[in-house]
Amino acid sequence: MLDATPLTEGWTVRYEGGELPATVPGCVHTDLLAAGVIPDPFIGRNETEVAWVGRREWTYETDLTAGSVQEQSDLVFDGLDTAAEIRLDGQLLGRVRNMHRSYRFDVTGMTGRLSVRFASAYAEAEAVRERLGERPGAYTEPYQYIRKMACSFGWDWGPTLVTAGIWRPVRLEHWSTARIARVRPEVTVDERGLGHVRLAVDVERTRVEAGLTLEARVSGMSGGDEVRARGTVDGTSGVVRLEVPDVELWWPRGYGEQPLYDVELTLRHGDVPLDAWRRRVGFRTVGLDTSSDAHGAGFTLVVNGERLFARGVNWIPDDVFPSRITRERYRERLAQAADVGVDLVRVWGGGIYESEDFYDACDELGLLVWQDFPFACAAYPEEQPLRGEVEAEARENVVRLMPHPSLVLWNGNNENLWGFRDWGWEQRLAGESWGEGYYLGVLPRVVAELDPTRPYTAGSPWSGSWERHPNDPAYGTHHSWEVWNRADFADYRLEVPRFVAEFGWQAPAAYATLRRALPGETPASDSPGMLHHQKAEDGNGKLERGLGRHFPSPDGDFDRWHYLTQVNQARAVAAGIEHWRSHWPVCAGTVVWQLNDCWPVTSWSAIDGDGREKPLHHELRRLYADRLLTLQVRGSGLVLAVVNQAAERWKGTVELRRLSVHGGVAGGSVVRVGFVAEGRAVAEVPVPGEVVPVGAEEFLVADADGLRALYFPVPDREIPYPRPEFDVSVAPGAVTVTARTLVRDLLLQADRLDPGARADRGLVTLLPGEQVTIGVRGWETPDAETARSALYCVEPAR
Fold first, then answer.
1. What residues are paired with 748 via a beta bridge?
2. Mean of the pLDDT values across residues 258-263?
3. CA–CA separation, 436 and 379 (whole Å)
4. Burial (CB count <10 Å: 0-12, 13-18, 19+), residue 518
5. What is the spatial distance between Cα 739 and Cα 769, in angstroms, rounded to a whole number?
6. Helix, strand, coil share (%) of the chain residues, nearest 5
């Protein structure tokens, strides 16, 4: 039987200036950090002090000893970052240049010093650029010339920390006669509920004459039954087919359960087992409806025949040093998404194909995965040496990720088709290759050949044809960035895209995260550390302008600025999602930019770089719930959109109250209206004229079945709010606030109570006499006055 021995011990990393113990898997930055050679690049402005690391060569070494009497021994690297030369006892095994691939070298009978020498990624990228010519990109760093995680070269939310190292596991595999080289599982289910598993198997042999057989089984059915099947190997390939009766369907979260079945394949020579392959699979159908209609052409995911409004978030690498991301950390971050109603995670194209731990967690949590191929915001050359690498990595990763039922869509790139048309690339390229051949040629061909069970789209955004603008909101996927860059978030309501794959609004990290990342610095929006941890072009300017459209200036009060920018982020995203959800099924999804951060930074994330939830994260729980009430302007009138994403009909009565900000019902106007929203549908209830608010002192409240929608007709800076008054009481694990006036967007910043404290909710608006209890964990010494000091709300203009 194949024997695998991890190679994790005894590594050193050598560089010009020294030699250190090395951790494998890992990278040079984490090794230098562990040895105290460099400061933490996440703290203060240390990022600039460690820039030299990306410009050096690094050599990892360990001793390789004989460990088996089997016929063949292979040295297997699951991931090398990125351009490296591998030698054993001075003999060259090979040269590699792709972070996104694995590598295997025959080392049968060899021992000695194993050396992996990494060139600077800059040197490799710049050499390719010199050979192939300049290509335009959104950033000046040369990330498009090397098959490496693009955002390690920096992004508008990330630091420039160009890594090198053995970033995924390495091992020795010893085997005889034959081994399983690749298994390509096609998992489908037919209309009778019969599950089909087709395992296409490739093997590598040491003995051509040996007769080989395949045995497969599927288990995990109710009652403990198993399905078994056999096949033979013809030369170096074979197929096994299994039929599983009455399968339980795998569903996205909120639509059903996520049953997973165990599949095991064994390669045999006679009665001797040689190798085994094991995965978990789920049975479901998936499609993408892009058919034309009166509104343009849609982009609707269909799972098990159910058309979905996708409640999504964009995912970036959770650490700029991805070797530090553990299985537990993946699970925690993705559980944070699932907890607030997210059902789709888009793995963005400037990062990586994530580890099995990521996709395992999505399988278990019912999170659909939209997987970008790693191309983002640049023109990518299509000549060698890149072209061969692109196809090789695509082939490997398509097959690697196929077993996961959570994976529902392959996407060719992020914003490159848009960039070609709109960002001046077409003129600058003057006919040079730029990646179109990947997105419209190589990648769809690979997916069609290897993974025909899943849809492929050429890019995001993409309208489906060069006959239309790539980012046309009426066709396919749309990225809505003009609003953040140039307008008020109210402008989200001016369009109804078919699928909003990116949109977002910035806010700083949580207070405790900032204090940890900027030690000794007096907090200010424009302090040196804050500006260093703001990577977006004119990011603070856009924050200030966005804030100024809604609130009076905080006048240098950092705590108010910090709170109000958090409020503005949550309100901006809410404005978009409420509007777009109310237009289902014309709009079939929103994917917020972004769920997470890779370091402490001011960004569009809902969860900051230390894993703390911003108010936006809690707001998503309301926005992505199955049932949502939202007050929307339609033409010259106001309607209550009753959004029902549950399967069951929602029938009820809504109470509409026109209120004064000073307390009480304005003009005695209260009405009750019945409604019916069918399952997976939206109903619109016209708002009677007598409850429509008039002037800056009035607002509308809609209540139904414990849900509430608010409508203020003017920005906060024009509203004559009363000075907020409320009472605070505490109990173990809870803070209770009772309002004596209108209290708008109350927020308990739990991390101001204790860096380890967490609150179970974000922004809440209380009417006079109303009460809210906020759960708090991680605060060991509760008292009311301290709690009051961590409570913020909207206040009248000073």
1. 791
2. 98
3. 9
4. buried
5. 5
6. 25, 35, 40
Quote the DSSP letter at residue 729: E
Mapping DSSP to helix (H, G, I), strand (E, B) and coil, where does residue 689 land? helix
pLDDT for position 69: 80
pLDDT confidence band for 91 (50 / 70 / 90): very high
Q: Which of the four pLDDT bands, split at 50, 70 and 90, describes residue 443?
A: very high
**Closest to 615 (Cα-Cα) out of 759, 490, 790:** 759
Q: Is the pLDDT of residue 66 over 80?
A: no
Residue 489's contacts (CB-CB under 8 Å, 6 or more residues apart) are 483, 505, 546, 568, 571, 572, 575, 576
Question: What is the distance between the alpha carbons of residues 541 and 13, in angstroms, rounded to a whole number?
Answer: 43
Q: Which residues of 352-386 are buried (b: 16+ CB within 10 A; e: fewer)?
A: bbbbebbbbbbbbbbbbbbbbbbbbbbbbbbeebb
Q: What is the pLDDT of residues 659-693, one digit of tens each?
A: 999 998 987 889 999 999 999 999 999 999 999 99
Give the amino acid at 324.
Answer: R
Which pTM was predicted? Answer: 0.97
Classify each residue of 418-427 as buried b or exposed e, where b means 16 or more C-beta atoms within 10 Å of its C-beta.
Answer: bbbeebebee
Taking residue 241's Cβ as centre, other Cβ atoms within 10 Å add up to 13
Both tokens assigned to 247: 């399968």
Name the token pair of 396: 């490997």
Quick check: 122 pLDDT over 80?
yes
User: Of 326, 290, 305, whose CA–CA distance to 252 is shortest?
Assistant: 305
Nearest alpha carbon to residue 227 among 251, 184, 193, 261: 261
Span of 65-79, 130-144, 403-417, 441-455 with lowest mean pLDDT: 65-79
- Report the distance separating Cα 166 and Cα 30, nearest Å: 11
Sign, CA dihedral 203-207-208-212, equals: negative
Please check whether residue 101 is in contact with residue 81, taking contact to mean a CB–CB distance below 8 angstroms.
no
pLDDT value, residue 666: 86
Mean pLDDT of 729-740: 97
Average model confidence (pLDDT) across the chain:
97
Q: Going by DSSP bridges, is the β-strand pair 344-347/310-315 parallel, antiparallel, or unpaired? A: parallel
Q: Where are the beta strands (DSSP E) in 39-175?
A: 58-64, 72-77, 83-88, 91-97, 103-106, 112-118, 153-155, 158-160, 170-175
